[in-house]
Amino acid sequence: MPLSGPAWVQQFPTSRSVDDLVDPFRTNVQNFLAALSAAGATVTIADTLRPPERLSLMHYSYQVANSVITPAQVPAIPNVDIEWLHTDTGGNPDPAASAAAAAQMVASYGIVYAPALNSLHALGQAIDMDISWSGDLTIANADGSTAVVTSSPQNGQNPDLHQVGATYGVIKLLSDPPHWSLTGH
User: Fold this and answer.
1) pTM of the predicted protein model
2) Is-contact 181 125, C-beta < 8 A?
3) What residues contact 184, with CB distance under 8 A and at least 6 apart?
4) What phi, psi does 104 have (nearest 5°)?
5) 108 with 60: CB under 8 angstroms?
């Protein structure tokens, strides 16, 4: 069985396509992105739909790397043949090597916050995106009215932009900088 480590990050790739989201969220995101583009904002999409296998690998690598659980406590993941428990040259469990391999996975995934095991990404109801602009952002709300975002920061963490996104049904998760979803989770 292959050992855990950064090579797993290439397995079960995530989508970056808005087309892989499900309606009504897909249409909501398309409309919000069109409004952002028309307003002159720059958007970079990092993740949309994530396979459940990837979510599990992300979740458990973070858990093992941060000593929340031991490698032996990681349950079997359907369709993923991975060994979390590394051993030394004598065949004895090597907790440090196991944690180091999991930490390499966390770094390779670019994980900043503890990944949820059951994520709206698996349902096509979440998107991770970086948004930025310069100056004031004059943007249309979903109802066609105009919002002018003059406050800082000039990125996806802007609370006034969160209000605009909400008019489209694209809700910001405040604790996770790039994450927007159907429900805000």
Assistant:
1) 0.85
2) yes
3) 171, 172, 173
4) -65, -35
5) no
Tokens 């998760």 -> residue: 173
Q: Are the C-beta atoms of 146 and 140 separated by less than 8 Å?
A: yes
CA angle 4, 2, 83 (to 5 degrees): 55
CA distances from 12 to 17, 84, 98, 105, 124 (A): 15, 17, 21, 13, 15
SS3 103: helix
The three-point CA angle 58-89-103 to 5° equals 20
How do residues 68-96 score in pLDDT, each as one tens digit? 999 999 999 999 999 999 999 999 999 99
What pLDDT digit, counting tens, does each position of 14-58 carry? Answer: 999 999 999 999 999 999 999 999 999 999 999 999 999 999 999
E strand residue ranges, the chain: 42-47, 126-132, 137-140, 146-149, 171-172, 179-181
